[in-house]
Write a structure and sequence with these properties.
The protein has 464 residues and is mainly alpha-helical. It contains 17 helices and four strands. The strands form two sheets. Strands 1-4 form a two-stranded parallel sheet. Strands 2-3 form a two-stranded antiparallel sheet.
Length: 464
């Protein structure tokens, strides 16, 4: 009888992580450098370069997109139009992984999907350098991300056997990689795009180079990765499985869908960092530091730098809680993350009053807000990624990772819609609205904790 091959983690002593984790760490780091470098510039690029009077006639698809949005929402100012496009782009970026994950599970495999997605995204970043191809470039980014995003994350889970306690810390380590790239990109891509004319072009070039570096690392590190599901089926000479879901699997999937639903308000508030908060920092914040003005795009690094700094502290705190039998469940952590996100925006209420009176917000208030927001993210996002790999049936893991990202998709679209109120209500009320949305989501998660545990059943290895 053939025995299944051991995972890379099983070949190492307890507490050690396989080399494949660090290959995926570095690959995702450069992909996020590419994504967040582009995101740091996106709203500014639209407002300061693309949508200027007399400059939109040569942008392919501009009139069609503008007319379609105004048909639904009425007349849109350049800021409202930019906010809507930002939200729709971010929405489809996280909707596409459902399709990319399904294709990977059934036909292409996770490894080839990552390579294909990375190549498409690199091409898209270079395409953004030409203003007239702005919308086709966004479409290419969406398609590439659909293949890349769900299939890089699920390969982290493939490194570990079921029930391995190293899996949760592995996702937190992987999440640090995400944020090292996201933290570097505004300093490099953001600075190049903001300060070298024409606006944005060389920032997108740097983002494209970053994606190529990620692909090179991934191709080099193939031997350190676990076989994906398609490779395993080919080794066993099996056809694509079509067995029906068991009742237990259905319950787990329904629980996952419920969790995703509660995540939507979290991401709608969180994504204001690249939308209205970018405008707040640019126009309403005193960025002077000892006589030097910090570039507005550098704000996009605050969150990522803090994630890298805070992750070891949060993991140590969870270990301390576990030792004393006080560690919250996965859902408890995620609910607490939502509440922290809501509380972070309360820091800006006094600053909004100062701005309304003609003053400027302090850079310190932005830093404190981002610090609390970052802690909220650490309690929700990596915990959720790990939870998906535990709940999902192995034959559907990439597709269900896409479902997890679908909650980000709807949250990102909602972030763009909320952004249309930036010019229509006092900023103090706007921040209060964001705070309420996130806190209510956390309360709803807590209220659903017992039904979710019941849906999973007792005696499972998944800690809800």
């Amino acid at each position: 009888m053939d025995h299944p091959a051991k995972t890379p983690a099983e070949l190492l002593p307890p507490g050690k992580h396989p080399t494949g984790l660090y290959v995926l760490f570095a690959t995702e780091m450069w992909e996020r450098f590419s994504y967040y470098g582009m995101r740091a510039l996106l709203v500014y690029y639209m407002l300061k370069a693309l949508f200027l009077p007399g400059n939109t006639g040569h942008i392919f698809g501009y009139e069609a997109v503008k007319h379609a949005l105004e048909w639904v929402f009425g007349p849109l100012t350049p800021q409202a139009l930019s906010s809507q496009i930002y939200g729709i782009y971010a929405c489809f970026t996280y909707l596409a992984p459902i399709v990319g994950g399904t294709i990977a599970d059934r036909w292409l495999g996770q490894r080839r999907s990552v390579i294909l997605g990375g190549a498409i995204m690199a091409a898209a970043e270079f395409t953004l350098m030409k203003q007239s191809l702005f919308f086709p470039a966004l479409l290419l980014l969406v398609v590439g991300n659909g293949f890349f995003k769900p299939n890089i994350s699920t390969q982290v889970g493939n490194l570990y056997p079921a029930g391995d306690h190293r899996r949760d810390p592995a996702f937190s380590i992987f999440y640090v990689g995400i944020n090292v790239g996201a933290g570097l990109s505004p300093f490099i891509a953001g600075t190049l795009g903001e300060n070298i004319s024409p606006y944005g072009r060389w920032g997108f070039f740097a983002a494209g180079v970053g994606m190529i570096l990620g692909l090179i690392i991934y191709l080099w590190g193939q031997r350190h990765l676990a076989p994906d599901n398609v490779m395993k089926r080919a080794a066993r000479q099996e056809a694509t499985p079509a067995e029906p879901l068991t009742p237990d699997e259905r319950k787990k999937i329904w629980a996952l869908l419920a969790i995703c639903l509660f995540n939507i308000p979290f991401w709608s508030v969180y994504e204001q960092q690249g939308n209205t908060m970018a405008l707040w920092v640019d126009a309403n914040t005193n960025r002077m530091i000892f006589g030097w003005e910090m570039p507005a795009t550098w704000y996009q690094s605050f969150n990522s730098i803090m994630i890298v700094a805070f992750t070891p502290l949060v993991l140590a705190f969870w270990r301390w809680q576990d030792k004393h039998k006080k560690e919250p469940s996965s859902i408890g952590k995620m609910a607490f993350g939502c509440v922290l996100l809501g509380l972070s925006f309360l820091i800006l209420l006094p600053q909004a009053r100062i701005v309304a009176a003609g003053g400027k917000a302090t850079l310190g208030s932005i830093a404190i807000c981002t610090a609390i927001l970052t802690l909220g993210e650490l309690y929700l996002s990596p915990v959720g990624l790990s939870l998906v790999t535990k709940l999902a049936p192995p034959r559907m893991v990439s597709m269900l990772m896409g479902v997890w990202f679908m909650s980000t998709c709807f949250g990102d679209y909602l972030s763009g819609y909320l952004g249309t109120y930036w010019e229509r209500m006092p900023h103090e009320r706007f921040f209060l609205m964001l705070s309420a949305l996130a806190c209510v989501s956390g309360v709803c998660m807590i209220a659903m904790l017992k039904p979710l545990k019941k849906a999973i059943g007792h005696g499972e290895t998944v800690d809800l």
